[in-house]
Every structure is written in structure tokens, then in C-alpha cells.
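Aim 2 progress update. The chain analyzed this quarter is reproduced below.
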Amino acid sequence: MQSRWDDAEAARFEDEIGQRVYSSRLLGSDSALVLSGGGNTSVKLRRRGLQDADADAEVLCVKGSGYDLGTIEVHGFTALRLKQLIAIAKLAELSDSDMARALRLAALDPDAPAASVEALLHAILPHRYVDHTHAEAVLALTNTPSGEKHVRRAYGDLVIVVPYVKPGHALGHLCARLVASELSGNTIGLVLLHHGLVSFGASARESYERTIALVTRAEEYLSANGAYEIPAPIPPGPEAQLGLRLAELRAQISHAATVPMVLHHDADPVCLSFARRADVAELSQSGPATPDHAIRTKRLPLLGRDVDSYAAAYRDYFEAHEGRRAAGEELQMLDSAPRVVLDRELGLCTAGRSVSDAIDAAEIYRRTINLILRASALERWQALPAADIFDVEYWSLEQAKLKRRPKPSEFAGEIVIVTGAASGIGAACVDAFLARGACVCGLDIDPDVTASRDTPAYRGAVCDVTEEQAVAAAFEECARSFGGLDMLVLCAGIFPQSRSVATLELADWQRTFAVNADANLLLMRTAHPFLELAPNGGRVVVVASKNVPAPGPGAAAYSSSKAALTQLARVAALEWGANGIRVNVIHPDAVFDTGIWTDEVISARAAHYGVTPQEYRTRNVLRVEVASKDVAELAATMCGPVFAKTTGAQVPIDGGNERVI
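Predicted C-alpha cells:
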């Protein structure tokens, strides 16, 4: 491991807290050290608090709970009165709730974020800067039957070895006693068995580079014992179509979780090789790398796809350890669905209420695989007993977070495909569904569709919706990214040049039908088996046109193709209702912020009718302009609970058209 400290870059960060921010980001951006919001850092300095009118207080600025070291800013650190923390750490016993209250009372600013539960550990160390990571190479040493021996051989007197205790007050109290008796001039860190690495120094750079040096020593120890190199993965076979299998697995996981879940498929060959090992059951069913990983991955992965058996085993696990709760404490059992799945065909799959949760679980388990393989090569992988994992997974502080968790977004855990997603109504639909918490796959022939949104909840695919293979590939990509499909919004369409029936070319007629009607049959047919598996029932919204109930001259191809599409939707509503799939139609009119309406076209049409461009834009009963966003909001609403008992409907959004009315 190499230091990434850059003096020029570090100089951009002023004062001690700025240096703390810079080195924290170096740690947090390295997944071999910190995963998914884990790790914590601190700096000791003097600062005047709101109630400290007479003098500056000596404080510990420690990472706030929930902040990510990789992107942390100054406001992500909470200042706590150091003297109070040291006194708290010296107490022989302290409940979790009392510790949390004591940390709040020690804060200089009552509105600051809750401090890391490791604040006491940082406080008792007599060093200005402290770094706490879950370094992968160090955990490969500690998570073995002879973990302490390996650590002492690798480090000698450079570190103090700390037996595993639950994070929080117990850990801070134990470390205070060990530091008081064992800290020497050679000591540059602590190794917390089954937990991680702590380093410290007089400067941010010294503490950071001591972390790098200590992790390097662990890597060298593993290498010297033939346990550092990960075995080469078995080359995967021919690419298989996995979409429907993933959707079936997602449906089972969502059922066990009682809410829709996103399923992320990881195609990493190392993960696939691990899932296919003959000893995968022995290696994977010991437990997680650290207890706090269980909060994101659960204690064990599911082997294969028998979700019901996993859920039953999880309930048994809860009932077996529920008695460990504190007196008077009530535990709320978490859902029994797996978060990690290892399957010989699918490889590694991870589930989450959001795509970010699923991706975080995948990152953690990919790293766990590396740990398992290295620890097994060194000796044998050995996680903590189930009781210790339970104590953290059902920690009162974590239970309190459940009660404070905000209400999930309307479409949390759900997935939608939107066609015509690069512009106009389709692009507005992408935004509307993302805003309501959905994962969105946007399809369009325009290459801009792939880079139009910077969020893990969006995937854009270049797709000619008239080509069967392209459509199949797009649905496969959606299933691999998010696990299946809940909603389909059909926006793609073309409006050919105005022609009278007498002059309409057959080629123009056929091209219009190919996009506006035939392609949507292909999309709906491909979507159907996925929509049948949607946890909350499948939904389809078809964007047709006012021209269906009120056609206009010169638009025979467009009007007829949209009418055919509407009839297709009506028949699908009849046929698919028994499967819980709703199919509804929107008829927009005069949506001028789309590609077919330029200022020049609007001006020409306005002149034709003898009105101003603004009058032309609002030539409806309500005298309002209908925008793409308005249509998109209606489409999203039709997929939500308001329309839960509606199918086969045709809803105009046109400001009121006299001919339609």
C-alpha cells in the first residue's frame, strides 16, 4: 500500500481541522481501508463553545455519525468536550442509551450531528490525530483462529492488541485501561480483533502514513505466508440471459422483506468463482468481517435461491438471541430477507431498499470474499460468534435509528423503464420517477440517453425500440442493474410531416406504425413476464395523443398509429388484469417543449390560425400551457396508489379540448 499524501493538495486545506478533512478523504476513498460510510477520524484542538464564555475548551472533533469519510467536509465533524469524554470512558459501566445521551451533552453545539459511537476510543488516546479504519489486510489476520498470534508476529510492539468487545463505551473503557498499561514510545496503533485498525500521530500526515505503514506490514505478512495473492478466478462461460431469473429472485426477496427491493447483480469473475467453489458453504456461513457489516449485509449470505428457507432461519436466529436484550428493552425484528446471495449461476447478487444500499452491500461482500480467501490461505476464516453479531445488528442505537428513519419515497425499491427518455415527455418522466424514489432505465435511440443523469438509480441504454434484439438487451441490462421491472412508460414516438391521405406515402405510414405501434407491442410483450413478478403489481402507462379521440387533417399516419396503440393498451388491460397488471393511457395535446415543436414551427402555426404564439400555446378551454413535466407527473401518479384500482383508463391532459369534450 502506498501513501497518497500530496503536499500541494494538502496545502489547500487550512488549519488543523482542514488537514483532518484532507487525510480523512484519503482514507475514505480507498475501499481497502474503509467501506460504505465506515471508519472514523478525529483531531483534538481548542475551541470555544456556546456555553464556554470564559475560555476555549479542549475538544475532540470526531466524525459525525452517518457521514462518509471519502466526501466529508468540516461540518461533518462534531466537537465534544474532551475532559467529559475521558471521564465517561473511565466509568466501569454505562448503558448504550446513557452513553448516547452523555455524548450529546458533551457536544459544544447541540445542533451538531450525533458523534461517532467510537468517540470515547478517540478521546482516550493521547495523540492529536486518530484514524480508525477497517483495513482489509489487517482483518485477514485477525479473523482467524490464531488472529492475536498473527498480529503480534506481524507488528511486535508497534501496536496494542485489543480483544473484541462491542463498539461504544465498553470498547472505549477497555482501550483506556490497555493504553494506560501498554502504551510505549514504539506504539503507533491499536489492532482491534475482528474490528479494525487504529493509528495516531501528532499531525494528520503522520497518522495517515502510519495507517499505510501498518496495513503494508499486514500485507507483507500475508505475502510471506503465501496468503496475499487472490486465486485467479475461473473464466466465466458464455454470457447467459439472466434477467428473468434475477426478477424471480427479486420477487422472492421482496416478499420476505414485505416491501419492494432492488437487486444488484455483480458480474465480477472473482465473485462468480467464489460462488462456485465446492467449499463455499463452509467459507460463507461463518459470518461477516466485522459485526457492523451485518447491518448492511445481514450475518450470512443466502446460498442458492431458496429465500423462504433463509427467512425461516433468520427468524430462528432472532428468537435464539432475542433474550440478550437489556432489561426493559423491546427489539423490533428486522425483515428476514437476505441482503447477499451467492448462486452458482448468478454469482453475487445483493439486495437493498435502494440501489445505493444494494451497491454498498455488494462492495462490502466483494471485499469480504478477498478477506475470506486470504484468511483461509493463512489459516482458516473465522468470524465472531452469532451472539456478538446479533448484539451489533440489534444494538439499541441501531434500533433507535429505525424509529427515526424517514418515510420511504413513493417508489422506493421499484424499477421503471421509460422509452423516448432522451428528451421531451420521456426525459420529464425520468425526472418524475427518480424524484419519487424509483430506479429508472431510460431507452432512446439518441446516445445522450446514457449520460443524462448522474445517479446510481439511473441507467440509460441506446436502443432502437423497433429492433427485437435491442429491446431484449435493454430489458436484460435493466434486470442486471436493478433486478427486474415494476413499471413501463411508453413515450417513444414520431410525428411525421403533415400529409393528406391522398398524398400519404406507404413508406411514411409504415415507418410511423413501426415506431408508434409495432415497437410498443414488442416492448409490452417483452415486459410482461417481468411485470407479472412486480412486488406491488405491474403498471404500464401509454403516452398516446389527443389525436385519438379528436384527429386532425394531415395527421393520418400519426393519428391512426396512436389509435392502434390505444387499442393495444385496452386489450392488454383486459388480458393482464388477472395478473395484477394495470394498463392506462394518457392523451396529451400541444406539449410544446418537445423536439417536434421549434419556435419557428409554433410561429408558423400561430400565423396560420391568426393568433400570437402565446395564444397558440394556450388554445384550450382552460387557457393553460401543457408542459412535458405536467404529462410526466400524471404518468407517475397513474403508477402510484391513487390509481391502484384503475386500469384501461384514457385520461386527457390537454387543458380541455372542445372536440374531445
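The longest strand covers residues 40-47. Residues 243-403 form a domain with the L-fuculose-1-phosphate Aldolase fold (CATH 3.40.225.10). These observations will guide the mutagenesis experiments scheduled for the next reporting period.
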